[in-house]
Design goal:
nine-stranded mixed sheet, binds zinc ion, Rossmann fold
């Protein structure tokens, strides 16, 4: 079985209600958990949020995670550095990592990329989005048509300050003229990282069958059991991580 942990900040502002609840009654993590378990019988899902022990990134959770899905927006900088470093070490040690939507601005993703991944062009709107398949041979694109469309998504555009991807799997186009490298992969240490753009919290992208297909494919791609003979989780490799 592939042990997937879905981490969503599930930020509760003053009214105590995360913004996504009107669209995702069980949270973004709940919606993703539903389609992953429906679509792939070899996946077991755990969900964590910032309200769990150690922001949801305690050692036991990470030790039992093959692939981590990460969605964040508001709390990007609130997670303490030592916890971010812990997640980074697991990712470098072979835990697959899928960073979703505004997770591009997270400390975790910035650390793993080494650039200011917070920098991109952006409009908070709900215009259509056309997602083009670029890498036809890539396992993450398997089963998808040449492109698919979402009726409403937030606009992201270049320049996106990421290092050159190992694989550029998708590029998104928006009616306002922007284009965006929306599906990218990298190898980091012993692990695999995938970034995927759709998923604004008040829009319905995680109910879209094509978005679900991409995320299911990405879990399979990022899953690397028995990947290596050493681990960045141990103190001995601290110098490499920093
Ligand atoms: Zn957003």
């Amino acid at each position: 079985m592939i042990r997937v942990t879905i981490w969503n900040e599930f930020y509760k502002p003053n009214d105590g209600k995360p913004a996504e609840l009107s669209v995702y009654p069980n949270g973004i993590h709940g919606a993703i958990a539903d389609f992953l378990t429906e679509n792939d019988s070899e996946i077991t899902v755990t969900t964590r949020t910032m309200h769990d022990k150690e922001f949801g990134f305690d050692n036991e959770t990470l030790e039992n995670t093959d692939v981590l899905l990460y969605w964040s927006h508001i709390v990007q900088d609130a997670i303490p550095d030592e916890i971010v470093e812990r997640v980074q070490r697991y990712a470098l040690s072979g835990m697959g990592l899928i960073v979703l939507h505004s997770g591009h601005a997270s400390k975790l993703f910035r650390r793993l990329m080494g650039t200011n991944t917070n920098r991109l062009r952006w409009h908070e709107d709900a215009l259509p989005c056309r997602i083009w398949k670029i890498d036809y041979a890539h396992p993450i694109a398997e089963g998808l048509d040449d492109y698919f469309e979402l009726a409403h998504e937030e606009t992201y555009g270049e320049h996106f300050d990421i290092p050159q991807p190992d694989d550029l799997v998708f590029v998104s186009w928006f009616p306002s003229g922007e284009v965006f490298r929306s599906g990218c992969t990298w190898h980091r240490g012993l692990g695999r990282v995938f970034y995927f753009q759709p998923g604004h919290e008040t829009l319905e992208s995680y109910y879209d069958k094509n978005v679900q297909k991409v995320i299911c494919n990405a879990v399979r791609w990022a899953y690397r059991p028995n990947v290596g003979s050493y681990s960045y989780v141990t103190d001995e490799t601290k110098a490499i991580v920093m």
